């Protein structure tokens, strides 16, 4: 039986609040499975056994939070661009309710989200951003599974991996011979290792904006097909940094290397109006008019396919994207591009 108790105040989607009242309701869903053994609590990490996940329902969507937390600094300790990983994690944690008609599921995202100790103002919880992050993940999952089918001995490298769980989600849909790698800043890798101790991804602490960031990866990628996933990453590069990243991927992984990443049109990317700026302080630094323009940022890349994202969020978003395409003579406001590298000259 579901118990309704007084508890933590949560903010309806699309609003923010900094105080709580005694009349807020929390819906406690009792654990119906077998008892789990109690593990020692790791310093700085909310243990999911001692601090069970509590779904809190608003506007028909559950927000998974730790049953116990404080208003002190969040457990994750991230800021700026690194903190943007929380929003797609939030979307994946709620995917079943956001998109019940799709097959997309991310069963461990809710646990990860709760264990970060996130605070609501750090995360974009509105339906548009949450659904958009899931549709982006769906597009990148499709590109990844197609790559794995063509190249079962290949390598999937997530640049700026954050708390992405693609390797776990696609385990039943990709061959065991596929190698999963992930690169991110040291503080992100430290958090990921704490929250995902049995991670199937081999991790590398590296900034992809620094020369030689890929050196440690080459023993895994040498003479093998490589797909680079740049999810929620490209827009944070300065134009020169974006060019450097594409150049370095082509240099490191050679002709035939593939890259899939999302991008905004410059009119949106450079407007500073995206709510992620207010939530984390991270700013978009670059954009592309379309996938062909993104590929042309650095020599040797060409567009394989472009996958719409904004149009899939809702009828209203589809209409807005259509108007945007009329104004910009065919450009999408936001999309996922699949690129491939040509021969080195």
Could you walk me through the main structural features you see in this protein, from its secondary elements to its overall organization?
With 345 residues, this protein is α/β, with parallel strands linked by helices. The chain has a domain at 128-341: Vaccinia Virus protein VP39 (Rossmann fold). The chain is built from twelve helices and eleven strands. The strands form three sheets. Strands 7-6-5-8-9-11-10 form a seven-stranded mixed sheet. Strand 5, helix 5 and strand 6 form a beta-alpha-beta unit. Helix 1 (86-93) packs across helix 3 and helix 1 (86-93) crosses helix 4. The longest helix has 24 residues, at 127-150. The radius of gyration is 20 Å and the shape is globular. Mean pLDDT is 81; it is low at 1-70.
What sequence of helices (H) and strands (E) makes up the elements?
Answer: EEEEHHHHEHEHEHEHEHHHEHE
Number of strands: 11
Read across the widest sheet, the strand sequence of neighbours is 7-6-5-8-9-11-10
* CATH domain class name of the domain at 128-341: Alpha Beta
The mean pLDDT is 81
> Mind telling me the CATH superfamily name of the domain at 128-341?
Vaccinia Virus protein VP39
CATH architecture of the domain at 128-341: 3-Layer(aba) Sandwich
Unreliable spans are 1-70
Distance between the termini: 67 Å
CATH topology of the domain at 128-341: Rossmann fold
**What portion of residues is helical?**
25-40%
- In percent, how much strand structure appears in the residues? 15-25%
Largest sheet: 7 strands, mixed
Radius of gyration: 20 Å
How does the overall form come out from the CA principal axes? globular
Contiguous helical run count: 12
Computed structural class: alpha/beta
